[in-house]
């Protein structure tokens, strides 16, 4: 008989990781935020050019959740940003409360998330409370320990979050708060799970499949490739 440990390993290997991309202007604290979540430690300095995906498991509501976290680097290159947006299931947009341009950058990033996610047909769904959500995006104002350098108020952050359609807003200090970052990830995970459940139940009510079944999806992909190959042969 299989041991519980082995069964857990098998079920984990079948579980899809929850992919979260951390986006924001340079210097807002994306790496500090990511490392706080992964290790609970605060590390001050990082290589600004390094872009990395970290993988970890965390306990959420009695379950083991698999996370993949993409700590993005310089956001100048458009194609790279598009690739990162397409990769993720959910997003955390970070700005620094001491930096106006990092605050404005979040609007641009949210706009791009909306347009790229739409192209991927990550369509919006209605939540039971009547609100609409697309790909979940949280807005986070960081560095609020720097009280004398603050430029963006908490109210402005909240206002921006509503304006650009983020699901939640937080103001934190990655440096000062150990648990804040973990809570943000946990809430994002819960929201995505809830969205998935709602989507499935709505689909059931409409007697539609919640997602395209894997085998149908494969068949469609094969068809596209076959057609492409055919077209290539014809041209050749
Ligand atoms: N005072 C304070 N400093 C912070 C906080 N979070 C990050 N920092 C500092 O801000 C600087 C930038 O942090 P990073 O985590 O490297 O920022 P980043 O967004 O990853 O920057 P790039 O890698 O250049 O994109 C570092 O010196 C951090 O120590 C915070 O909550 N409070």
TrEMBL record:
EC supergroup of this enzyme: hydrolase
What EC number(s) does this enzyme carry?
3.6.5.2
* Substrates-to-products reaction catalysed: GTP + H2O = GDP + phosphate + H(+)
GO molecular function, one example?
Answer: GTP binding
List UniProt keywords, sorted A-Z.
Hydrolase
Q: Which family does it belong to?
A: Belongs to the small GTPase superfamily. Ras family.
**Protein name per UniProt:** small monomeric GTPase
UniProt organism field: Mytilus coruscus
